[in-house]
Structure formats: structure tokens, C-alpha cells
Recover the amino acids of this structure.
């Protein structure tokens, strides 16, 4: 079987956006599925992690093209970097930045990575004319990538699969900072076209699948790769280590946890770390800050902790948020504190795997932290031990094959 995968984010891009298909490619390779990747060269990446290049199976064909450099234009206008994960203005933002965000929200549809589409389409067209593929698959965000698949479907007799790692018109940053009505209609029109034309759509959660327009849809969880954790072992330290790993994005409210920690000064050996988050909140206790880490180092941080924090973005329709990070948290066997309203799919997965708790208020979190700290202090085993094999990446890939 041969698959042509079109993805904007791919190593040396780092972060959560590349993990899903990097794991799938490895698992597919083990099942004798040949994957050719069309991706970017020097794309507008939120992070880079060259170590991930070693995770690409030997012999995998990777074709790269340069996208239009929106980041250069953005920087020429005095901005540090392209927005990623948030389009909300801050009170201290300049008028120019507010104007640029408005233009991005209302005039660039579906996203700023659309400048790559022309060169990616040419690469895909050449590959389809020179070789035979059983499937073409596009993955988003950026959802502009699906428009490449849509155009290919219109011109070639292909089996096209569209993979949704996040919602499109219902994505959290459009919920928190809505564009104009006309722009939203454009989003919904393109979204409906993709869902209607794709032969199959893979979606990361049931709720997101239900919220997407009519189409042929199936749930394909992110999952975890057990090989990533084969050489990692929990090492106890003198500190009770609470860690949040990843970038805090718009709508993620960490304040209940911060209030809980502030209310527990008696927990003298408690240590809280933010890993990969640039902006550190002002609190009355010390926060350890670490920069974005290569993937394997980040997994080490997950395993060597007593509690991991997951925060579901607070917006209408958030029940389907199932991040890549959640499944790696579960595989680490470190207890998870998920800060979210009850009833979401993240809670369903956490409860099913007996991996932690889902709480909302500072009081609930303080009570949980106090009890877990006492267990740890008494040298009780607080590692999770539930059945997690359902979310093994090889189980998910069986659906693809």
C-alpha cells in the first residue's frame, strides 16, 4: 500500500503538531505501508526540534517546498513572530498589532499557512503523475492544507482522506475572537466542501466529528508510541514535582491551580514547573521555568514528575478536545490533573484509563494536591496503573490499514 501524505508541519518542526503523523508513519512503516511525505522547507514553525528527524523511518521519501514567507512580512511590520495558538489582542498591544490581527482574522481564510498551497500542489501533481498511490491524505491544522487535497480530488482520480487534528470553523481561537460574519461564512463553506468531497475524514475525537459538517467521518485517536517510553523510568526526588508541559494558549485558565498552590504553603517540598511556556504568571511562590525541549527530553520530564497538569481551553464546544499531550501524559504513568468542566472526552479517557482526575475550582484542586502529597510523602505508590493499550498508536493504525 502506498500513501501520499501532505502536511505543513513535519520535522524539523517540533511541538505537538508533528507528533500524530510522525507516530503513524513509523507504525505504518512496520506494516509495510510506504508513505511519501510532501511538506515544507523552512516553514513558519512555532518550534524546531531537529532530533525528530531521526524518528522518520529509513527510506521514507520526503519532498519539500518553500512556503510564501508570511513570517518575513510579519517581522517587516515590526512583529516578533506569526501568531500561533491565539489571535487575541492584549491591552498593551500597539494599534498596528491590533490591526494586523484584525486583518489576519478577517481577510486571510482559512489561515496564514495558505501561502504554501501553490508549491505543495505542484509537488503533489508531479508525484501523482510519476507514481501510483492508493491514497492521498491531508492533515490540518493548518486547514488550508485540505484545500490542496480538494483541488487534487477535482483533477485526479484519487482516494482522498482528510485528517482533522482540531476543529475548523469551531476552533477555539475563532470562538474566543470571532471574525466577521462574512469571513465565518467563508470558513464554513470551505469546511463543508472538504467534508463533502473527501472520501473519508479522520477526526481526533467524537465531539469534534459530530460538530463537523456532513461527511464520511471516523474517529482516529492520537494515541502514544510505547517505544517512546521504553528507556524511561520514574526517579523519585526530594521534591513533589508538578509540571505543565507545553505552551499555554488562549482560553487555558491556569489560575485555579495557582490559587490552590498558594493556599498550601505547608507543602514545603512542592515544586511547580512550566516547561515550554514563555509568559510566566505573577504569583507569591517560585515557578520553575524551562524552555521548549526536544521531544525525548520532554517525555523524560513527564515520567519524572508526581503530577502533570492538563488544561482544556475554556470555550463553547470544548468537550471534544483530546490533545496529543493527553495520550503521552497517560503513557508516562504520572497522575494527571485535568482542569476542565465535567463531561468532556478528556475526562472520559482519563477515567477509563484510571490516569487522574478532572477538577475545576481552586478548592477542589487544593484538596486533591494535599491528599496526593501526603501519599507521596508516606512513600505510597501514586503511579497510575490502568489499562491504556486501547490508545497504543498501533491500535489506531489498524484502522488506517
Amino acid at each position: 500500500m502506498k500513501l501520499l501524505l501532505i502536511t505543513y508541519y513535519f520535522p524539523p518542526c517540533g511541538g505537538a503538531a508533528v507528533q500524530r503523523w510522525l507516530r503513524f508513519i513509523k507504525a505504518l512503516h512496520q506494516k509495510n505501508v510506504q508513505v511519501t511525505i510532501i511538506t515544507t522547507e523552512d516553514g513558519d514553525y512555532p518550534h524546531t526540534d531537529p532530533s525528530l528527524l531521526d524518528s522518520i523511518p529509513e527510506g521514507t521519501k520526503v519532498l519539500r517546498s518553500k512556503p510564501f514567507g508570511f513570517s518575513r512580512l510579519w517581522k517587516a511590520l515590526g512583529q516578533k513572530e506569526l501568531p500561533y495558538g491565539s489571535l487575541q489582542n492584549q491591552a498593551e498591544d500597539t494599534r498596528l498589532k491590533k490591526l494586523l490581527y484584525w486583518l489576519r482574522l478577517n481577510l486571510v481564510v482559512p489561515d496564514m499557512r495558505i501561502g504554501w498551497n501553490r508549491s505543495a500542489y505542484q509537488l503533489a501533481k508531479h508525484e501523482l503523475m510519476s507514481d501510483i498511490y492508493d491514497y492521498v491524505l491531508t492533515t490540518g491544522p493548518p486547514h488550508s492544507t485540505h484545500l490542496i487535497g480538494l483541488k487534487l480530488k477535482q483533477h485526479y482520480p484519487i482516494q482522498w482522506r482528510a485528517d482533522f487534528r482540531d476543529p475548523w470553523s469551531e476552533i477555539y481561537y475563532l470562538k474566543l475572537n470571532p471574525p466577521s460574519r462574512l469571513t465565518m461564512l467563508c470558513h464554513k463553506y470551505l469546511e463543508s466542501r472538504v467534508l463533502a468531497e473527501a472520501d473519508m475524514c479522520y477526526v481526533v475525537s467524537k465531539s469534534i466529528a459530530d460538530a463537523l459538517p456532513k461527511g464520511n467521518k471516523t474517529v482516529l485517536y492520537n494515541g502514544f508510541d510505547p517505544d517512546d517510553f521504553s528507556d524511561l523510568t520514574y526517579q523519585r526526588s526530594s521534591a513533589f514535582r508538578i509540571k505543565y508541559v507545553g505552551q499555554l494558549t488562549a482560553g487555558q485558565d491556569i489560575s485555579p491551580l495557582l490559587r490552590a498552590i498558594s493556599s498550601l504553603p505547608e507543602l514545603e517540598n512542592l515544586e511547580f514547573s512550566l516547561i515550554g511556556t514563555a509568559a510566566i504568571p505573577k504569583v507569591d511562590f517560585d515557578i520553575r521555568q524551562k524552555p521548549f525541549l526536544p521531544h525525548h527530553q520532554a517525555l523524560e520530564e513527564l515520567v519524572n514528575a508526581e503530577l502533570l497538569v492538563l488544561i482544556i481551553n475554556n470555550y463553547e464546544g470544548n468537550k471534544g478536545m483530546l490533545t496529543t499531550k493527553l495520550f503521552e501524559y497517560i503513557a508516562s504513568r504520572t497522575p494527571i490533573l485535568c482542569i476542565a468542566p465535567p463531561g468532556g472526552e478528556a475526562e472520559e479517557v482519563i477515567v477509563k484509563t484510571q490516569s487522574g482526575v478532572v477538577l475545576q475550582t481552586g478548592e477542589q484542586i487544593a484538596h486533591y494536591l494535599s491528599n496526593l502529597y501526603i501519599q507521596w510523602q508516606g512513600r505510597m505508590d501514586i503511579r497510575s496503573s490502568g489499562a491504556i493499550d486501547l490508545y497504543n498508536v498501533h491500535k489506531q493504525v489498524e484502522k488506517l490499514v
